[in-house]
Amino acid sequence: MMSLLTDLFIWIITTSAMACVLVLFIFIAKILLKDKLKPSWSYLLWTLLILRLMLPWTPESSFSVFNILPIEKQESTNDRGHTFEPNEPAVANSLVTAVQPTDSALHNDNESDSLVNKSEEFPKSISTLQILSLVWLIGVVTLLGFILVANIRLAAKLNREPSIEDQTIRAVFEQCKNELKLKRYIVLVETNHVSSPTLFGAIKPKILLPRSVMNALNVSQLRHVFLHEMSHIKRNDIAMNWLMNVLLTLHWFNPLLWYAYRKMRDDQEIACDSLALTRINPEETKDYALTIIRLLESFSNPIRLAGAASISSNKKELKRRVVMIASFSMNTKKWSLLGLMVMLLISGCALTDAKSNDNPREVKPSVVNPDFPVPNDAELTKGEAKNPNIKSYAKYIWNEADEIKSIPDHFLREIEASGWNEKKTEQMGAMRVFEKNGTIIWVTTHNGFITLSELKKVTNAESNDNQQGSDTKPNEMLSAKEQEVYNNFQKDLNEQHLNGLEPISIAKLYVQAKLDNKYDVEYALYTDREGFVQWTKEDDEKIPDSDRGTEEQVLSTFKNIESGEFVQTSDFEGYIEYQSNSGSKSNFQMIKDDDGIWNVSFQPIQ
């Protein structure tokens, strides 16, 4: 869940930064064109901002401004994990464990267990990114709550207000509806919950008129008010305001977007003025402007809710509205073409992503699996993995780009196009893992370099041949006391039978249960301490017998555990250090439960 939250937060941050660039382009266009850009097109430019904030993906373009202003986009939490340079053979061992269920039940060498422990610890420590993600989420929920409560409260109050039945006012109201060709049902409400004429509601719109306004305005002025408010309905402005408010809750930390929203609302009012003016005679334009001025002088302080739009605005915008009204002209074909060109230009520059570097480079077949091509300039470094299930192993490293911090999209596409399937595992930390026909590759990035490591697993036939040549034989591992405890424990799985046993003895019981195929006993020896349980007993029972390891494999890994040394690292954690049959050092992790009894902490990877 936390990884999904941080992924979403990173996408929001990236989108917000790109939206800021688009806002600057819109402001520049408005400054350069001034009154040449007609009101409807000036307002329409803000739809590009809404698209930028909504779309999870935009097409790549050579004209994109982000080719020269790169904003890095992260793909997954794995790419943003803790940066570390692991011992490659140890990673190879861990990857075999992660993708091969049979081996996942077996412990590997000391380096492999150490890496697995480190990667498991990553989610336990809260990073700065996770803290910021939580703060962002709290802000989103809080702000969205405020917006909803404010609109719901006003809606509840308005439901108790009377509708206007004055025949003169209703006649003007119906005339304006016909002039704008509106078929929707609109309620005309008298209320003192607003100080100036206001439209409220996107689905069931209501035009709100205070009693003071009805008394102060004549029929002609009321017509101007109705035409303006109905223009909001005609243009679906309330729905647009709601959408923008929801997007702003996601980007509440960005002051530039809040300022852009304020300017969008100002442009929205002017666009409605423009539409209203198309329904009145040219000689009435002066009277329309006087109506706006009178409303501002006498009935100011319009409400600023997501679900509302008011005819009056602030004094700062009044001059701009009056100038537009005075210079209004119906002949707008020339300027409509200009508006379209501006939208296309801004879209091409700021509503697209940077062109990815898809230039093909010369490749060569990998030494482990020829099906996978690596760049010719990739440096090969062979390694040796101690895990007996690894047949061959190699590592390549090459420079992809300066300061690269995540695996390039084009490279991931090349991997998938070659038939490699990604392994969805949280065990590996900061890397991407793929598998094909028994070969595993994993990719990481660091300081502008891509590292690709590759290994080939031993096949079942090869594994059987190796086992036939081995002189490892099953043997009795338990002492008389341990055998007695083991016999009693498997009857009822009561942990009190284990009370007083040393951690090494508990581990030996676990191994014996594996040898006896007592899977319920094996699971009962796992820790149930909170924070360490990885799966349920039902999940454990679903593992097929073929994936649990043979007796030879179990003994090869655990045979010498009784001669190991227990190292306690905290009040409830420790490990048994011993030498496996392969000659490598291994760690067997143990956890003390709340009842004071040591249990096994290792569990297969899901």
UniProtKB/TrEMBL annotation:
Residue stretches making up the Peptidase M56 domain: 13-325
Read off the Gene3D superfamilies from this record: Metalloproteases ('zincins'), catalytic domain (3.30.2010.10)
Region Disordered: what ranges?
Answer: 357-383
Among InterPro entries, the record links this protein to:
Beta-lactam_resp_regulator, Peptidase_M56
Question: Pfam families, per this entry?
Answer: Peptidase_M56
Transmembrane domains' residue ranges:
12-33, 40-57, 129-150, 242-261
**Keywords in alphabetical order:** Membrane, Transmembrane, Transmembrane helix
Please give the superkingdom of this protein's source.
Bacteria
Provide the protein name.
M56 family metallopeptidase
